[in-house]
Fold:
Amino acid sequence: MQTSADRQDRHQYPAHWEADVVLRDGGTARIRPITVDDADRLVSFYEQVSDESKYYRFFAPYPRLSAKDVHRFTHHDFVDRVGLAATIGGEFIATVRYDRIGADGMPATAPADEAEVAFLVQDAHQGRGVASALLEHIAAVARERGIRRFAAEVLPANTKMIKVFTDAGYTQKRSFEDGVVRLEFDLEPTDRSLAVQRAREQRAEARSVRRLLMPGSVAVVGVGRAPGGVGRSVLGNIRDAGYGGLLHAVNKAFPEDLGEVDGVPAYRCVSDIGGPVDLAVVAVPAEHVPAVVAECGEQGVQGLVVLSAGYAESGPEGRERQRALVRQARAYGMRIIGPNAFGIINTAPDVRLNASLAPEMPRPGRIGMFAQSGAIGIALLSRLHRRGGGVTGVTGVSTFVSAGNRADVSGNDVLQYWYDDPETDVALMYLESIGNPRKFTRLARRTAAAKPLVVVQGDGSAPPGHAVRATRLPHATVSALLRQAGVIRVDTITELVDAGLLLARQPLPAGPRVAILGNSESLGVLTYDRCLAEGLRPSRPRDLTTGATAQDFHRALGAALADETCDSVVVTAIPAIGEASPGDAELAEALRSAAAAVPGKPVLVVHVELGGLAEALSAAASTAPAAVEKAPGTEGGAHRPADRPPTAMAEAASPPEGTHLIPAYPAAERAVRALAEAVRYGQWRREAADPGKVPEYDDIDEKGAARLIGELLARGEGLTISDAETCELLGKYGIPVRRALPAPTPDTAAEAARTLGYPVALKATAPHLRHRADLGGVRLDLADEEQLRRAYAELTELFGKPEELRPVVQGMAPRGVDTVVRAVIDPAAGAVLSFGLAGAASQLLGDMAHRLVPVTDREATSLVRSIRTAPLLFGWRGSTPVDTPALEELLLRVSRLVDDHPEVVAVTLEPVVVAPHGVSVLGATVRLAPPPARDDLGPRTMPAY
Structure:
């Protein structure tokens, strides 16, 4: 019988269903449940829908909604009848609803698991992907409420809606009867439905960033009347960079008769501009930003770069101001970079946008850069500015984003843009914090499979103003997970730029074999030693002597590149004295021509005190940004840069297609570190092409485990289950736990030993003694009752009363290597599987390896081999190798358990004895908790504010 509490729960407003989403065109909308307060919004929405769309929805002319219709479509119990609306500016642009039905097609309640679903999208917003986003969210709601299948009836002419259903990727069947197409589809996510969802997410988020980086018109709001100030500076930077679109200066304090500022048309408000504005750069005090956002939203501005400070970085009051800013902008469908941002840059020749505080436009190139703080952004740009040299040209920036507090647009969004950006070959990111590590890891893995991603990661403490999900994982563990996703992890800005320069135009090395040649024996030996330290396989350095000519370098490099036992070459050069010594330009040309003859292998140069060589390697007359001609405003009232011939710098920055720059490094350790990262990344790319598979095991009882978990969770919100329940649950996944019987007295210990059979082990399981064999709390190989009673007496004499020790008796397992297997659901990173040797190796030295769940067979193999103490498993110093295939299978089974059942939030198997034949799990604990309402496998959402 349904209680009043049940009925109240059925009608409780589900706030966790609210979500902001990015639509196909890059704009945003809010999805939320429809309530009784939405009657007027629903009527207004319906009035703006065309007669054709109404006909498709109701299969007949339906010009207006009756009072009964409005009541029905706004009154829901949020269980059997649910309605969701997509809104912009608080007004409906689309709706979707489901009604639970029984086998007869009539309204029903649980346990009926089918529902009819229907959509209506305002004509002005059709084609923006609104229906697809609503389908993802209504399907997630339905699964949460126990509905497993949707049915939809659609007129054959309504091809757009049929496509929404058929393209979603769910398992479905179609029938045609009485002139209506009936679609039925299961709501269980499939590999195809998840792939469709991820692809839509990528396209939408990439387009939202593209709208910010490639605007057709820009308004700078907050331009000062006098020179200086943030707004006036940014306006000048945009103008001087040669921005190719329309540029406007805005300040409500401008005199009414002011026509322009620095040659740019001036206006008192955005609404006075008279034409569309794609991007607004906001540089006004924080208290005035809401009014600017409202005006921009009303005028259809697509995105904002908020340079203004005084937000979350300033304390609790500023944090609330930041939340209000994001909510306000999203209500108008706008995205925000910032607040407290440094700005954005796009060097594409048809854009040339420098909407930042950087006074000079960076050189155009193939490197994308992302930073959060302005100081780091300045350091990145200046470092690349100084170091961007190569044999055939210079390496520069494609796009640059400094997101400040990253309240909205984050590194994840920029990654989505870079993934298929043809102008970006390498992505460099300085991340002081990671707001959503689970999503970042997923996007990084996909991006790294297409182009290098180099990251400096903060130390784990979030800077003021950054919203970061709480994580229980150590900083080192998160770093290890990023490396497994293909991220090239470095520690400093210098290493970030060093790696970026190598990866931007040099091919990936095919392996770790390195040839070293140069005119200094000592520098060659130093390079050789650094290669060994980085795990590379260098050949003995070839000393060309200090009298080497440019032709000697050319011949030696050509021979090294032609050698099949060489994967890359490091050239070392020091200043030479004598008439035959090569000049900088001559040596650079010799190296360039030799490398061009064999282009498939990377070449690096280590130069010591050869400033001229670095300049010659860049092959550019100047590293200063190209001058930009200022032009007066055009008749259209907007500022456009004048046409200009390409500069020598621009020509140098665009080498012929297929050529490779040779990066130069001032120190051997920096060159070798960059090369080592490229070698490891190349190896990851090769392995990523065949990541393995998640194996199926016939003896896994997934449904039985689900029933048991449901019964256990019915007792409480979160609990560590008993030993017997742990054994039962693990047993359903083919993970037997060696039986242990409690022994509160010597007599019960003897009885337990007779039940299990000798030999046995006697263990103290008190928290301070558990898994601490080094303290003497374990007695092994007790062959008879006499030895057992003697051991029992020794334990109680040493450590106290039995009730304090909690002793157990357990049958002896075959001797082997003690290991530990753990799995945990981290709120930020997701499900993580960890492995190490039990005892000091993992507890004291932190020698644990980690993989993201689900783990494939190849990942399980690498997990076992990636700890530093792995040789102990493979016959170190003559010991007997243990059964690592059985260990890998255990890891895969644990991975399946936590992946299949998100309610399993923690598993610890310790110790796991890996013997020469088989494994034995001697101890296990499992913790359960209700699963989260939404996770990374759920519908697309933006971070909540």
Observations:
- The chain has a mean pLDDT of 86.
- The radius of gyration is 33 Å.
- The first helix runs from residue 4 to 11.
- The chain has 29 helices and 39 strands.
